Every structure is written in structure tokens, then in C-alpha cells.
Request: fold
Amino acid sequence: MSRRFQLYVILLLWVTKAFAEPVSTATNAVTLEQESERFLIAFDISSKMRSRLKATTNFVHDLIESGFYGRAQVGDTIGVWTFNDLLYTGEFPLRVWSTNTAAFIARDVCEFLRKRRFAGVTRFNVLIEGINLVVKRSKTITIIILTDGRTKFLGTPFDEEINGAFTNLASVAEKAKEPIVIVLRAYHGQLIGGSVARASQRIVFPAYPVRPEGKQTITSQTNIVQARTVATRKNNLIPLPTPKAEPIQAESPAGNVVVYPGASLTTGAPQILSNTGQTGEKALIIASPTTRPAAPAPPMLEKPEVQALSVQTGMTTQVFTPETAAPKISLTNEVKQPWSEISGSESDVNKFANELHASDGERFSTKRIILSSSTLGESNLPSQPLLVAAPEPPWMSLTRTLIIIGLVLSGVGLVLVGTAFWYMLISRRRESIITQAMEQSNSHQDTE
Reply:
């Protein structure tokens, strides 16, 4: 019987090892993955966006299924956030784009958006605080924000240009019941440019200053916008003095700056350039650097309550060549959102800042993040880089469940086998001499 018990234990160990091997293999595969492009889509779910849900889902479905109009490559990650007066992250798991999964991801994102509760008001400050943290930890990232254009945009070096674009399109977009699309791109922790358009118009994705490996660089009509240094106080934004811009030196034809015919390289205030490709339309392009500039020294602020917000300088006029001109945009009413009403802790901010570092299959628990303006300063950012979460294939959760069930059943079986073995030993045990003598005595008495 003891040999049977040994065979049972060996079989149990072999089954446990067989289930555990795929887990270790998947974990080791993490180090072989290459860094991918990141796309983050942020949906405004305030009450005013409810009437634009159909147009929003149609736009997002086409955007994802087309691979962001041909810009996505296999392995690129897609994250989804929602916001109103609060920022919601982790409600939709991070997905990995491929030509085979594009249609499924598009369907899932649209279904996720239809189930959201549209309520509250729009506050861009809570969204931009989260974006700034993710941008600082990303080599390249494209952020797409869908909103109604009725709330003042704040928190980036391009606020003035974006709000000016809102003014042109908000009324038209409201009549058409479609969202306004803001595209921001960041390179090595710095916002380099963006564009604004209605969902039914051509969407512009600014090119990266240095072409990432495997990506195509497409350049076209250019408009130069000098980045501004912006500061924030608890209840409003205060612009800091803009350093004097250096004159632009024309680059040789071999350089990475392409000037569209009729466009000029200028400094100072942005211009609205005519878009010859679309009749009756004008374009707004937010420009930025062709190469990554050296980090400037933080501005000296006389008032202690003012904090620097995403300092993007005018060290030199930052030249940038977007792909195509983005159509115009609009806004009529400005709504100021007080910073003092936002509360939260630094740990809450850092929890979701690492989300875009995860891979397909990882499930995030639903989090309702409330950010604080006090977390915006550099001193509140972690000194050490955040840990990158290991990717978890879809079958891993099922494997883990099977392992647990197998171990539980094995334990129960082991207990049953031990009990049966103990009972068999008890039943076969020889009777003692005293018991045998008593039984013989009783039998004699019965015979007499």
C-alpha cells in the first residue's frame, strides 16, 4: 500500500509541474518584446456628450479598425480613459493592436463607451495631469481626446491655439452632433505638437522629430507655433514670460524639415494657413521641435504659490512638420474649472501612470482616480522609474485557475486515500491474545 501512496505523490508532482511550466515561459518572453508605439484615447463623458455618442463610436471604430489611418503597427498598445469632472482609468483593459485584432478592439471600445454613464461637467485639468505623467514615462505616445469644445482647454503649452480652434468649430460640431478631436503627440516625455478638427474632417497626426524605427515620416504643409511656458495656480493659469526666440536658420534639402509651397517659417504668434487641399476650409497645425532640445532650467517664480506646468520653452523656435493640415474647429462659451475642488494623493496618481506600460491580457481593477493639483510639480514625481508590468496572455488566467483547482482536488484526494489506508489497516489488525481468550470462553459457555 505504501508503494501506491508513493506513486500517487509522484503523479501529483508531475501534474503540478506541467501546469506551472507555461507560466514561467510566458514570463521569460517579456524581455524579448520590443518597445511599441502607444495610443491613448480619452473620451469626454460629461452630460453634453450624450447626444454625440453615435458619431463618437462611428469615428472611434473607423480610427482603430484602420490602424489610426495606417499609423499603427503590430504590437502597438491602445489604452482607453474616460473623464468628466473626474478621471477614470483601468475600466478598459490595455489592448495590443494587430491586423487580426483591430476589428475586435474597435467593437469592444465602442461597446464599452455605450455602457458609460454620461453625467457631470468637463474638466480638462484632471485629464491633463494624468496625461502629463504618462507622457513623462513614454518614448513615443499619441493622445486622442474627444470632447464637445465648450470648455476651456488648459494644461498644455498649446492651450491658446487649441482654445482658438475650439472657437471656430464648437457651434458647427454641436449642430452636427459630432465630437471635436484633439490629437497630441509626445516624444521622449515632451509634447511636440498637435491638431484639432471635427470628427468628420481629416485628422492630422503630427510627425515625430526623429523618425522611430519602422515608422514612415510624412511631411506636408507647416505652420510654426512657438511653445509657451505656462504656470498654474489653484484657481487659474498664469502665463510666464516667454524667452526671446532665436532666429530660424533654413535647413538644407537633406534635413528633416520640409516647407510646403506658400508656407513660411516664422516666429511669434501662430498663423491660420489656407488649406489648398480642401475648399472653404482652413487648417490649424500646432508645431514643435525637429530634434529633442536640451532641458531648460526651470523658470524662477516670484510667487511661491505658482508652480510650473509642463514647461515647453521658447529656447529656439521649435520647428515641426506635421503631415497634413487639420481643418478648423470651434467654441463659444468658456467655462473655468477651479483647481481647488480637485483632491487626491500622490499614490493615486502614480497608480495609473504605469498603465500604458502593461501588455495585452492584463486586467486592471476599476479605479476612480481623483487628482490633485499639488501632485503636478516635479518634486512629486518618483525618483525611480516605474516597474513595467509583465504581459499576461489570455490563457494565463485560465491556466492559473486550473492549477488551483488541480491542487485542491489533489489535496482532497490525498486526504481520502490516507483515510482509506488508515481504515484498511485498522480493519486488518490482529486481535490480541486476551480478546481471543475472552471470545473462546464465551463460546464455551454458549456451548454448555
Notes: The chain has a mean pLDDT of 66. The radius of gyration is 32 Å.
